[in-house]
Amino acid sequence: MEEVDKILILTLNHLGCDIDEKVKSVGGFGIEEVVSGVVRCIRTINSDCELPTSLPQNMAQRFRVAASIAQAVKDVGYPGDVGYQSLLYPNETDLRKIFMFLIEKLPKDTAAVSDEPLNKAALIHQEARRKLCASLTQSWIPAHCRHVARSYATRASVTNHGTYHTRQFMSKPYSSVESPSKVSPGLRTYYENYSRRITKMVGYEYLIATLLNSHAIQLQRDQILPKNTEEEGKSEAHTLEPLVTEDVQLNPLDVPLSGWSPLSSFETAQHMIDIKESEREVNLGTDVSAPEAGVTTEEQIRLKREEQLSRLQTEIGNVTNKTEECTQGIQDAVDALAKLTDDLIKEERLKEETVTELKMKQRTSSLLPESAANIQRLQGALKNSEEKMVRLQQQWQAHKKPLEEQLSQLTLEASNKKVNKEEILAEMSELRDKMKAMVQDASRKETALAQLKGQVEKMNKDINRSVYTKRIIDISAKEAANNERVRQVYRAVAAVHEGCGELVDIVRDTGTVQREIADLREQVDLEKSKKVEENLTQLKTDLNQVKKENASLKQQLL
């Protein structure tokens, strides 16, 4: 049973029970461990179970909760007899049967318990095994198709389908020259000698998306912007309204790692307006001073670029700060929500406990008019238990005394027969030695007889027959004496055989008595394992506590 108890304790610890390491068997469980283990097993089997894992302090509530748990065990399908007494006053045998039944009813993934220690390496292997099994059950998407899944992905699907490393086409801010023929000489010199290439400005990975975006902006600008240059400054914001109203929703996972973020249509249009204003100013400057146009235009363009760059960097910093503030605010709100959720759960649990206690008190108060009858029932049950205990002790003493006398008598007889057996065995060994000596003597005489027969055949036939007759008579007398000894040996062997048969019968009777004694001892151990005296003591204590609670309730009512 030790191995069974170890498996039961290990399984209960995996279900969340806090069983001390010093407890090595089910018999060492206290009432709290019993109730907690049974309720956790029932919760694992039936998720709708709402039974508490601990008993309340009030005795009436304890009895009701224990009865509810016992009824839940019956509902699961336990075939044996179980009641509140099985939990409040448990015995080791019934308790082991209940736990074995409940653990057999556990779901397979919960009942599988490993004997290995749950160290860090084992937990890592277990988590890796679980994730591998989960990934093997999902559909696989080829690498060349993952960008399609990425376009319609959420955070969960990105993780599931392995498209986290992919990204959509992202563009960077870039404005191209509208028409090379309309560019001023100074600006042309800047573009030819000082301007960086587009590959260095946006990078190879953003090149295609940037060019496509710039081309789309140019096409849309040509369709929307008015042809009249005099009204261009007034109506530019109005004509770009379709671009402003465009809403681009970005997934948080779509942000590139380099820190760049794609410009919205409004920012692109605003950037385009700034470039046109700069080009207009450059054109005006070239008309005023043609000889110094190259140097002035380059200086203005450089200053304008630096101003735009600083403004964009400031805007980027502001957007980054706002993003961080929003992220921090969201995190604070999530933390506050989690805290409020925990507080709400605690309040609901406290409310449930309060409602349960209130119902128990209401039921207890409803039982007060019949408190005398209830006390009499408990006293009668206690008296019956005491009488049963006394009656069992008397029966045990009545069976014990004659059995002990019979055991002592049989032990004495067995010892005497053992001594007789040893004596008979010694005589048998002595007779065997004599028989061996007689056999050797007989063989020797047969040899001598053969020699004498040979001599007789060689001797003269005229010898007197009386001599041979006398010798024959002498030999016959000796053989008769030897036959008498053989008869004595046979009688001794028969007596030994009879004694051995009696010894076998005695040993058989002794084994039967020992089996009966072992059965009686098992019955005694079974009665002791039921802890009748301890349960009676606990029952008396509970009865006294019930009396005290009834008295306090009466005082409160008065």
From TrEMBL:
Keywords: Coiled coil. Residues 1-107 form the CCDC22 N-terminal domain. Residues 283-475, 478-530 form the CCDC22 coiled-coil domain. Residues 330-462, 529-556 form a coiled coil. It comes from the Eukaryota. Pfam families: CCDC22_CC, CCDC22_N. One of its GO terms (molecular function) is cullin family protein binding. This is Coiled-coil domain-containing protein 22 homolog. The gene is Ccdc22-L1.
